[in-house]
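Worked example

This section walks through a single chain of length 215. The input is the sequence exactly as stored; nothing has been trimmed or padded.
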Amino acid sequence: MNTYYLLRIAVIATLVFLIPNITLADAYCALRDPTAAIHQLYPSASSFRSVVRMVDNDVRVQVNERLPFTLHYEELGEHTLYIAMLDIDRLGIVHMRSEATKWGLMETAWSLGFDLKVKDLFIQRCRIKDCKNATLEDIKASVIGKSFDEVKAMLNEDGSAIVFDEKYSELRNSLIALPIIRSALKTILVTELVWNDELNIADIDPMYSSLLSVE
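Given that input, the structure is written out below as tokens.
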């Protein structure tokens, strides 16, 4: 077998291993349609700013120090934080995170206040029926308005199960409740660790931000 064919085999083998990982990494972090998602979460928004930062292994380690679970390696890389705007006023944050379920990745766009309390959520991709029925509204009601510590209190010590109060006890059997709560915790914590400086300033430096119209 000559060198040409050996080289072709090496290239094909490399692509076989790389392409699934590239695709999965993109799926973990991509907000497929920022304009639609932001309009869903902030109907009054007139524009939004995007701030791209690196989520690296140091962030992964810090998440693991504060939670009984951490980020997947596929979640590392460049991620975008979106800030919904009404003219020059900042309305809130949109941050996309994904969580593995038995039926594939569930992609959730989270709306957070600048105090990092949950304001709302929008399911971008999900193959589980609970994502499209009243169960999702019940889960929203259980997390909206809560801080990191309050959401964390909804899980048991090892993060493997939900400790809902009696009002939401029926959600114990939901296939999406635990992934959504874990996603909320990672979203809040990663936003704090990576974009903390954006949470406490009156405006965003235009050198690393873009202003796009929300139709």
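What to look for: Helices lie at 3-29, 34-41, 57-66, 134-143, 148-152, 177-199.
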